[in-house]
Amino acid sequence: MWNEIKNKKLGIRFSRQIPIDQFIVDFYAKDYQLAIEVDGDSHYHDDAPQRDKVRQQRLESFGIKFIRFDDIDVKQNMGWVLNELLIWIGENT
Asked: What class has domain 16-91?
């Protein structure tokens, strides 16, 4: 995914693996306060969904907006992922 969004390929600047508060987000567009999370298999087991929810709520309390994608979509349906991002960008710029 990084190769598809780096260098302002979608018109906005993303950074990768950015620490915010006590967490690290996968991708972050500072100018839009947008975090993109790619959820792999580990996000669906044990207490991971609850931890993700708490983490996201904490970061949202700072005004950060989230878009979450399943890693299967990132691997197998990148066109759809990029289209979803472009829609979000269009609605928020």
From this structure: alpha beta
